[in-house]
Amino acid sequence: MSKRDKRGNPVSYDSQEAIDALDRACDLLHAYQADPLAAADKIIAEHPDFALAYAFRAGAIATATDKAFDSELFKSLDAAERLAPKANDRERQHIHAVRAWFDGDWERAIANWGRVSIEHPRDLLALQYAHLGDFYLGYSHMLRDRVARVMPRWDNDVPGFGFVKGMYAFGLEEAGDYRQAEEQGREAVALNPQDGWAVHAVTHVMEMQGRSEEGAKYLSSSANAWAPNSMFAFHLWWHKALFLLEANDVAGALRLFDEDISAGGFGQALELLDGSALLWRLSLLGHDVGDRWKGLAKKWESRCEDGFYAFNDVNAMMSFVGSGNSRAQAQQLDALKRAAAGSGTNAMMSREIGVPACEGLVAFGRGDYAQAIASLMPLRAKANRFGGSHAQRDVFSWTLTEAAIRLGNRALAEALVAERLALKPESPINRAWKMRAGQLQSLHAG
């Protein structure tokens, strides 16, 4: 007889105790609290025939977007597939989604999880995995709309409603509806202050609106709830570092890099991404980051030939350019070109964005600002194709603006600065760029 989880979804396994334990593990993942994989391992050790527990574990590993974890991903996927004949249709769709992801067809994986979410609107796990997939593929409006599809089937009486509101908040922010995004995000945090994704959504609104002082205070004041056991703390501290950088608190931003962003030892790609993204911005503004580039680049080197996810590769290239490691730069470009010649979702990302972006970064590093602009400028309109958020992809605008100023291209510099000021008119960084662009104009006029 089919049993159900706490949200009413059918589960084929016959132990309610195991199903309840998986619900608790899922809640850790939904809140980005540690350690859902350890919880899953305990369930699997006690219930080795529980197909959905393996699918949960495999999906969590897959959505970390790190090829270094492929062996663990395959172990869980293989076990889930062997148990699939005993699973129900919902569970098999979860398994098929992870298989598609593992095979490199991320779009098909998201479609499978999305189908589960339509057929079972209270399957919060399918919704979260599809939501993360939309993020990695840069599907900004689907981040909003996929969650909107299920909202009528949720309310405060359904466990986990806050997690749905937090995802909806992030989707609204990425779609540009900042007022409603902040409203939904704050409601989600009120329901569960440990919900790192909801805190993240509110933080993104503040980032996009240039509310840097408020954003830094918001993260500090809310940290007692989400930080102690968070798997996501490094990224929220990265956001605070951006807020501090905006206020010209370089020492504070570097302290966050040293003490919080690197707290996990840069053991996974997601942590490395934030390290690169912060140091690149600091370096663009002319700040000395000491030996940090070398340490970060060393961590990236073991991944530079993966050709697994172009977004990772571009951030890795920042570290190789920042550290002056020409050998790793060449290896990374070769890997990207091989990936671009292949098939699957990442091949498209590598062709469209990864290769030209990395060529632009390399050109910037050698002082060829004209080439950097030529490589990066066409990417602005389509950078979403390789995933990430608007805040993360803003690094292209930063790099282009600095390249235009260093090149002395007054017209382009002023155009890029005007674009930035239209979104964040009070930004000290944008105003400083405006002043430097204006000096180019004065020099040209003289």
UniProtKB/TrEMBL annotation:
Name of protein: Tetratricopeptide repeat protein 38
List UniProt keywords, sorted A-Z.
Answer: Repeat, TPR repeat
**Gene3D superfamilies in UniProt:** Tetratricopeptide repeat domain (1.25.40.10)
Native organism is Pseudomonas cavernae
Q: Spell out the family assignment given in the record's similarity comment.
A: Belongs to the TTC38 family.
State if S-adenosyl-L-methionine is listed as a keyword.
Answer: no
Q: Which CDD domains match?
A: StaR_like
- InterPro entries recorded for this chain? TPR-like_helical_dom_sf (IPR011990), TTC38 (IPR033891)
Question: What domain of life does the native source organism fall in?
Answer: Bacteria
- For whether the record's keyword set contains Repeat, the answer is yes
- Entry's PANTHER family? TETRATRICOPEPTIDE REPEAT PROTEIN 38
